[in-house]
Amino acid sequence: MSLRRKLLFSNPKPPILPQAAEHRIRQFSVSIDGITLQGWLAVPHGHITGAVLYFNGRRESPTTIFRFLGSMKNIAVAVFNYRGLGPSSGQPSEVTLVSDGLYVLDWLSAEAQIPLSSIVIIGRSLGSGIAVQVCAARQTAGLILISPFDSLVNVIRCRVGFFPSFLLQDKFKSTNYIAKVHCKVLSITGACDTTIPTVLTDALFSKWDGDLTEHIVTQGKHRGLLRHASVEEAIALFLTQVFIDEPLEA
Prior knowledge:
CATH architecture: 3-Layer(aba) Sandwich
Distance between the termini: 42 Å
Strand content: 15-25%
Low-confidence stretches: 245-250
Structural class: alpha/beta
Number of helices: 6
CATH class: Alpha Beta
Mean pLDDT: 92
Shape: globular
Radius of gyration: 17 Å
Order of helices and strands: HEEEEHEHEHEHEH
């Protein structure tokens, strides 16, 4: 892996596996052309009304979203380590991560025995760049973007000033894909986020005129944004509006 990719795709923090009253959490693995991706699936004890696939941020544990399982009753939740990170094999890149995301999305649909139209994609920070492209390629029930940006180049420029785009191999230019997203979208940002300023989120959605709900955490920063109670409440409300609380036919 090149030095630039090593800096971008850092190993995640250790997994967070809570005692979930409404779910059973188990590990899973999928193989793609000799590459093995390792992840976790939280399966509801009752009937399944829908599912969530989570794409984590840089250095964030993919299982971070499991802290919200208490408000995701009857919803299956899948997360996985990006290729080349944690126990997953291979070499990460923008192209391979998006391809892997599509593969795991299709796997989740088959595993939970639900259509793609009953799955919500969630992407946080760097993961939002993957989530937008996955959702642009598949018709899903909804998309939740946490600290999203217009392009990774602009994220870096906000930190260091002038930065030639050719220095970045994986640009994650979400503005090139957002127009192809045709589902409801929830955007969650921190008003005090200096890593991904809200101006970059605004730039992303200036290219999109779909059904957008915005939740801004007034005191929210980039780090620790998911710890704010209002974030879980906003996600729970969005999922309630998307999913009908009735068993799905296989």
